[in-house]
Design brief:
With about 475 residues, the chain is of the alpha/beta class. Helices cover about 25% and strands about 30% of the residues. The protein has 11 helices and 23 strands. The chain has helices spanning about 10, 85-90, 95-105, 155-165, 200-215, 240-260, 275-285, 290, 310-320, 345-360, 405-410; strands at about 10-15, 15, 30-35, 45-50, 55, 65-75, 80, 115-120, 170-175, 220-225, 265-275, 295-300, 325-330, 365-370, 370-375, 390-395, 400, 420-425, 430-435, 445-450, 455-460, 465-470, 475-480. The strands form 4 sheets. A 10-stranded mixed beta sheet has the order 4-3-23-20-19-18-6-21-22-5. It has an 8-stranded parallel beta barrel with strand order 7-8-9-10-11-12-13-14, surrounded by 6 helices. Strands 15-16-17 form a 3-stranded mixed beta sheet. Helix 6 links the parallel strand 10 (about 220-225) and strand 11 (about 265-275). Helix 3 (about 95-105) packs across helix 4 (about 155-165) and helix 10 runs parallel beside helix 11 (about 405-410). The radius of gyration is 22 Å and the shape is globular.
Length: about 475
């Protein structure tokens, strides 16, 4: 590979590209390489080019990443993060130049990592500074419905993100809890269930939210029914069994969305971990009436019962069993915030391993949790602090970019919505890889080197191969 490393500081510093390396045209048969690597300054850095030459049959001693563009799979939806109250409140504590920097860093297609997906919360969640809903106590008619709370920080923040993204985001919204008076425990926190007498009221609540946001100039692409419906949390939460969620969807939410003229909005079920993912999927999707309302199934990566081993096979099984339904990652973050961990390389590696494995098992898109948090890992009204790819020091106005930002960018910047995943296979276990063909015809291959040693390999396509070296503990995007 031609050794033309450009220091990350001149390519992508604080989220702003100062050298337009990503747009440089390359000759036919040339592979362009971008790399982020441990113990180097390379962060989405232009790592030079490699050239395809003839290689009819690799031998076993030659490490290869094989790509077959003729075998196509799911269509890529996009990548993004959550625009929560916490992110919005932190954003407006920054000076204007840092606000502009953050928006470009995430949403600008040329000078950032080109997020196209976003999530936000309906009512308060743990990453809010206070508990709130949009209606008065006991108002089952929803006559008092008002999103005034969101107009202070969250709505202006979402609008700014949309503008930075070119005017459009694939935005979906999720509730953490109905109002307390609608629940069996009379509390937005600590689980509880939706009272049967409020099923129809709660279904209408989603449509009120969608229409209120659209009146503010923020179109919603879709909703999920409930964030983490099997988790009784110290923060906002609400429990549904699979059958309860299925029946709420088919008897209340689905018909109400249709009645209110919102049938085109996507409805996501589950929105929780991989562990129970198949049991939930079969309950929803084997019921024809429920299945007709469900666009797909959402999942998270928090799996406390799995012994620390992500249960990727459950994603694959859902994809194989229900190929007409979409599989969408709706939340993930590194928990247990400690500011000494800002530069922990495992932050980014967790993202890339999960993204590669889940894309290869049929996932169509990926939504990170908060796009921005403060120096405490908040704000959070229940003390559930965590990491974001970017943190703000609200005392100094500085932005702190973790390597997770760059690792996510290796996917979000280069894989375009509408791309098709194609067959991709590595011949050594330390290399993880996935590949897509973009609508513009370019092939994008992402390769993670999980070992701490440099690994030379060949990118092999149809009897031709390009020689590349994966630096130890690195992530690379290859474009040809």
């Amino acid at each position: 590979m031609k050794s033309t490393w450009i220091q990350a500081a001149t390519v992508l510093l604080a989220g702003t590209i100062t050298v337009d390396a990503f747009a440089q045209p390359k000759p036919q048969g040339t592979v362009q390489v971008f790399t982020t690597a441990y113990n180097t300054s390379y962060r989405l850095a232009d790592a030079g080019t490699a050239v395809f030459t003839s290689m009819p049959q690799p031998v076993e001693t030659q490490v290869c990443v094989f790509v077959d563009p003729s075998k196509k799979f799911q269509t890529f939806l996009g990548i993004g993060g959550a625009l929560t109250d916490a992110s919005a409140e932190t954003f407006y504590k920054l000076p204007a130049d840092k606000q502009d920097e953050l928006l470009k860093a995430y949403f600008d297609k040329k000078n950032g990592i080109a997020y196209t997906v976003a999530r936000t919360n309906i009512n308060s969640c743990d990453f809010s500074s206070d508990m709130y809903t949009y209606v008065n106590e006991g108002d089952a008619s929803l006559a008092s419905f008002d999103i005034a709370h969101d107009k202070k920080y969250k709505i202006p923040f979402i609008k700014a993100a949309m503008k930075a993204a070119g005017g459009k985001l694939t935005l979906f919204a999720s509730p953490w809890s109905p109002p307390a008076w609608m629940k069996t425990n009379n509390n937005m926190l600590q689980g509880g269930k939706l009272k049967p007498e409020f099923f129809s009221t709660w279904a209408l609540y989603y449509t009120k939210f969608i229409k209120a946001y659209e009146k503010e100039g923020i179109p919603l692409w879709g909703i999920s029914i409930q964030n983490e419906p099997m988790a009784t949390q110290t923060w906002e939460s609400c429990i549904y069994s699979a059958e309860e969620e299925r029946d709420f969807l088919k008897n209340h939410l689905g018909p109400t969305m249709v009645k209110e003229g919102l049938a085109a909005k996507k409805i996501i079920v589950w929105d929780h971990n991989r562990d129970l993912m198949y049991q939930r999927a079969q309950t929803y999707f084997n019921d024809p009436l429920a299945a007709k309302y469900a666009w797909g199934i959402g999942f998270h990566w928090y799996e406390p019962w799995s012994g620390g081993t992500p249960m990727y096979d459950n994603v694959r099984l859902v994809n194989e069993a229900f190929p007409d339904k979409h599989i969408f990652f709706t939340e993930g973050c590194a928990e247990s915030f400690n500011d000494s961990g800002y530069h922990n390389w495992k932050l980014g590696e967790k993202y890339s391993e999960n993204m590669i494995q889940d894309f290869n098992n049929g996932m169509v898109g990926f939504t990170d949790w908060n796009i921005l948090l403060d120096e405490t890992g908040g704000p959070n009204h229940v003390g559930n602090f965590c990491f974001a790819p970017v943190h703000a020091d609200t005392k100094t106005g500085a932005l702190i970019y973790t390597n997770a930002y760059y690792y996510i960018g290796h996917f979000s910047k280069f894989i375009q919505p509408g791309a098709k995943r194609i067959a991709c296979s590595a011949s050594r276990s330390q290399l993880l890889s996935t590949a897509f063909v973009n609508p513009d015809g370019k092939t994008v291959v992402v390769v993670m080197n999980r070992s701490d040693k440099d690994t030379p390999y060949f990118l092999w396509v149809k009897g031709r191969a390009a020689s590349i070296t994966a630096k130890g503990n690195s992530l690379s995007t290859l474009i040809f």
